[in-house]
Design goal:
Oligomer: homodimer
Distance between the termini of chain A: 29 Å
Number of domains of chain A: 1
Shape of chain A: globular
Strand content of chain A: under 5%
CATH class of chain A: Mainly Alpha
Number of helices of chain A: 15
Largest interface: A-B, 61 and 61 residues
Chain lengths: ~300, ~300
Amino acid sequence: METESRIEAALEQAVRAATAPSCPQRLASAIRYAVFPGGGRVRPGLCLAVARAHDDPDPGLADAAAVAVELFHCASLVQDDLPCFDDAPLRRGQPSLHKRFGEEIAILVGDALIVMAFNAVSSHVAKQPAKSAAILGALARAAGAPAGIAAGQAWESEPSVDVNAYHHAKTAALFEAAAVAGAIVGDADPEAWRATGGQLGEAYQVADDLADALGESGRLGKPIHQDGHKSRPSVVADLGVAGALAQLDRLIGQAMQSIPECRGRRDVQDFLSLAAARLCPPEIRQQTAAAGSGSALDCG
Amino acid sequence: METESRIEAALEQAVRAATAPSCPQRLASAIRYAVFPGGGRVRPGLCLAVARAHDDPDPGLADAAAVAVELFHCASLVQDDLPCFDDAPLRRGQPSLHKRFGEEIAILVGDALIVMAFNAVSSHVAKQPAKSAAILGALARAAGAPAGIAAGQAWESEPSVDVNAYHHAKTAALFEAAAVAGAIVGDADPEAWRATGGQLGEAYQVADDLADALGESGRLGKPIHQDGHKSRPSVVADLGVAGALAQLDRLIGQAMQSIPECRGRRDVQDFLSLAAARLCPPEIRQQTAAAGSGSALDCG
């Protein structure tokens, strides 16, 4: 099965189990709303790309790990949009989850998605204990405290922010976990893959800052100028647009370079190229090029 | 080590790992605030009581399961108090977590506690795969959707409520998981213990409704009259005070009866008696007895 269909099918299975008929109807609808339709599914795609680069010896476990990273991501989007965080009315061009279902349900969807993420992998423990244990550990590290998504978001409440720790925890940690989990499934050295995931994740954070600073709200399907409005650390504020674009290119280049030697190295390179192309809003490249500060990577 | 010290030590270990120096300081303080000092620690106590009744063959795993159920409980209290739910300024006589640390941090603490709960048990997977897998499954069932804590809370957003499903998911499911997890650790039949946990949990729900309807806010350390204010289903609204007290007694009696035959049956009975005594606010018994509708169980 193609990667995209695998991811959607595995997510559908997880959502179907959580939204069984005994589930309160609004919560069930909201869980589905949080997961479908998705965005780029880049994190689960990375997980499967790494597993496939090592012959994908346990597709069921690879799918479970991919589902888990995507569900953590979905949970983080629902929470980011809440009134006390970004107070965003839109996500992917649709009403944000709390606008559609209310704030109570949005908070509970976050909980349910985190539980579903762990449960996806837990159900493989009996058959694949060593790999499942390692994946569960990587997921917990990426999602919670001291240095996962929850910690990343919490840096925004600190009077003084460690910007590297903030960006790593908020975005890069889950990309790392995706690559690490794929490597674990493929019997490869997970630490050899950590950098690839981390650098792609950092590139995503830079792209997110660029989109927030310069994107068009209608095209992005979500509000912009949140970083400045919320006084959040931003690569664009630190380095300017041209500097941020250069850093984006450098990170993608580093991610490419860091891919460990393996049978499917070329496929992972292709995956990263595609992911990089999606990262870069064309109008930003155009605006910047017109202003004489174009960057090396053509991702239009 | 005595049960209480075991629980506090195991919780301290989980909190210390999550609040390592790399954790943002406010999140770290808030995670600790959510867990210490605790309430009655009844759910982890039940888990350890059941494991001990079967000779406690793996104290580390029993502690991990006990920690997990308590962390889910702590997460649910932090969320219950949020402005969009009970909007409670107090919890256990102190400012509620969001009043002290802000709503953003409160939501992130909920996430972090859920991750910590799974992580506590996951770290035993490599050594005890079969038991850990079963415990992780029981925890996910008790915490998420379709029928765990998140679902229980979500019933409050439905136009029409299945009261049994609501009470079971909101309160009894986690007590069930505590008993089931203790049985799994002790190589006992988990299904034989499910009823004991569930009935104690239902008794707690009835006691919570009674306290909400009749308690003194100062004594409880949290706001009262939330059920009526929020138009939530309540056993007191359905059965009256005397009816609710009778149901509380019946549930405790059923829980006692349901304890499976085992070496430590007497110890579990003692545990349930203590838990039952804590459940019943003396002033409610006194008020009800004075009004001529006393109940059979003396738990003053």
